[in-house]
Amino acid sequence: MLKVSGISMGRKWNNIKEKKASKDASTSRIYARFGREIYVVARRGEPDPESNRALKVVLERAKTYNVPKAIIDRALEKAKGGGEENYDELRYEGFGPNGSMVIVEALTNNVNRTASEVRAAFTKNGGSLGVSGSVAYMFDATAVIGLTGKTSDEVFEILVEAEVDVRDIVEEDDAVIVYADPEQFHAVQEALKNAGVAEFTVAEQTMLAQNYITLPADAQGQFEKMIDVLEDLEDVQQVYHNVDLDEE
User: Fold this and answer.
1) CA-to-CA distance for 66 and 63, rounded, in angstroms?
2) CATH topology of domain 88-137+210-241
3) Is the CB of residue 183 less than 8 Å from the CB of residue 19?
4) Strands of 128-129's sheet, edge to edge?
5) What integer pLDDT is reported at residue 219 of this predicted model?
6) For tag attachment on the chain, is the N or C end more exposed, with fewer CB atoms within 10 Å?
7) Taking Cα atoms as reference points, which of 201, 211, 143, 209 lies closest to residue 176?
8) pLDDT, position 137
9) Could you tell me the strand order of the sheet in which 139-147 lies?
């Protein structure tokens, strides 16, 4: 039975849109990160998305960022050929100005370099690194799937019929956004595809803060600089935080 929470998640979706729009401004960086992630996930399992569910998730995300097929194919071929590069998956948790919270996910072939660069990005911009678990408990791992061409009621009926449980369904900016547990990512997509949805405006597995905060103008400027520095680091794949950047 479909479970829809009574919590409005529109503000959370705004933060995802903000991040996606920001990343879209630097496509070469996005492509490089997806190429690395596809290689790592394909090498860890099978380079076939039909037998490697994690790879299928990455490829679905890549579609919403318009990653060229050539880059995807190159990463898959590299994995099939037994590429020699080894990457460690790292997660850093820290605090920004005014107690803001940040999670940084990285893929790196040099752990010491990445740790040093991430620490510097925090400390030089009014932040500090925390220990593992100091921030993550305030975030929820969430699948976010967006689509157009259907109403929230229609999506609700589709998911009820398919017996897929989700957390919330909202309409915003002419799109319908479905929030679900990460384990339901494929079930949601398959139900919607079977109902005629050809493509998705967003297909993310992300970390959403349980509560968002608004920073005073001076602290927000410092916070945004810190996030920009973190996102510019070569080894960083994703940056999540609990600051509402829409209130400017």
Assistant:
1) 5
2) Alpha-Beta Plaits (3.30.70)
3) no
4) 128-129, 88-95, 101-108, 236-241
5) 93
6) N
7) 201
8) 96
9) 168-172, 175-180, 139-147, 202-209
Residue with token string 């999506």: 155
HSE-CB for 30 with a 13 A CA cutoff: 18
Can you tell me which residue has the tokens 């969430």? 142
Q: Which residue type does 138 have?
A: M
**Letter for the amino acid at 54?**
A
Which pair of tokens denotes residue 23?
């990343």
Beta bridge partners of 239: 104
Residue 148 Cα to chain centre, angstroms: 20
* Same CATH fold assignment for domains 88-137+210-241 and 140-209: yes
Closest Cα to residue 85, out of 44, 29, 31? 44
**Burial (Cβ within 10 Å: 0-12, 13-18, ≥19) of residue 43:** buried
Question: Do 33 and 58 meet the contact criterion of CB atoms below 8 Å apart?
Answer: no
Reported as a single tens digit per residue, the pLDDT across 80-96 is: 887 678 899 999 999 99
The C-alpha atoms of residue 138 and residue 155 are separated, in whole angstroms, by 29
Which residue do the tokens 């803001």 mark? 100
What angle (nearest 5°) sits at the alpha carbon of residue 228, between those of residues 226 and 232? 120
Q: Which of 13-27, 31-45, 126-140, 169-183 has the lowest mean pLDDT?
A: 13-27
Q: Where are the domains of the chain?
A: 23-80, 88-137+210-241, 140-209
Q: Is the pLDDT of residue 44 over 90?
A: no
CATH number of 140-209: 3.30.70.980
What pLDDT is recorded for position 20?
Answer: 54
Domain 23-80, CATH number (from 1.10.10, 1.20.1630, 1.25.40, 3.10.490): 1.10.10
